[in-house]
Amino acid sequence: MEREPDRIVLTDEQQRRRRARSIAIALALGALVILFYVVTLVKGPAVLNRPL
Amino acid sequence: MLVVSEGAEFVPPIVNPTATIGCREPSAAAVGDYIALMKPRVMSLVVFTAFVGMMMAPGHLHPVIGFTALLCISVAAGAAGALNMWYDADIDAVMTRTAARPIPQGRIAPGEALGFGATIAAFSIAVLGLLVSWLAAALLAFTIFFYVVVYTIWLKRRTPQNIVIGGAAGALPPVIGWLAASGGVSLEPCLLFLIVFFWTPPHFWALSLTRTEEYARAGVPMLPVVAGADETRRQILLYSIVLALLGAAPWLLGSRSTLYGTIALAAGAIMIALALQLRREREKQPAHRAAMRLFGFSILYLFVLFAALLIDAAVYMQAAARP
Fold first, then answer.
1. Between A and B, how many CB-CB pairs are < 8 A?
2. Does B4 fall in a domain?
3. Is residue B91 in a domain?
4. Distances from the Cα of B2 to the Cαs of B88, B197, B228, B269, in angstroms?
5. Does residue B37 form part of some domain?
6. Distance CA B323, CA B219 (A)
7. What number is the ipTM of this complex?
8. Would you say the pTM of this structure is higher than 0.90?
9. Beta-carbon separation of A38 and B64 below 8 A
10. Can you give the CATH number for the domain in which B217 is found?
């Protein structure tokens, strides 16, 4: 008799959605890196000056 | 137990939404479900009013910094929407308008929504503080706190003044935009705040007049549920009159052009006329139509008013740039 796996097995649909969520998180983090880079270019050394 | 008008009973909610935190099943959420969780239509209104506040503010803001501020404000609005949906999942499930949302449909677990909302709220505040202004970031944090804790958790299920006081959260984005651009606050952003603040009750009460029984069933003490339709119509008219005056105030105080004044007065007059029509209608179907007409026009009113302010600010900037 085949043993039941002792961990959660994702269905194909769950795997596809998890992959889509992972890609979305990666894109969001990538966009954040680009945003910080561009703002640093725009502000120059003043990027470290953070007034209220 | 309060007995409400129109034959519906006001029953306080019995479900504790925080009791359902956590997920045991693997997530079935699609990316689109997370976008729905952020209430994109509300986000668009928030971004637009914040943009107008930013454009009206004195001083020069680099487009990249302005874009960053708007991005943070829109993500923060999405975070507040997600946290609202997390807490209100039990109410959403029993109302037709909200039953298709991701949590009542079981596509996103409440714990996932809480984690998502808290994470993007923290990111939006931190990025606005680091890249634009810590004062604007502090006001953004306060706005999220006000919407989630003061409005959603505290007031919404307890008082018919829920959307009156809670409306302050929706009225703050133009002030945040102004603050991000200029670093300070003056009379004009306060007027923008008051316009959105007084716009919120007639907008939501008009909608709630058409869904009184649903709100009663969900245990939300909206004004029509607690005070009845007549009192709600009276209050809508009063708020509409104050709103029309506030809408024209930037022109009356001399800081905006006659064109803006004309648009604000005309739009305000239509708002009052629709509120008067709603107050007159008593038959079920015509009253429903009048409420939906006012609800629909109120969205157009805010858009037209802020678009006129934006055009006015752009014309002023062009004139100031001329030698």
1. 49
2. no
3. yes
4. 21, 28, 12, 36
5. yes
6. 61
7. 0.84
8. no
9. yes
10. 1.20.120
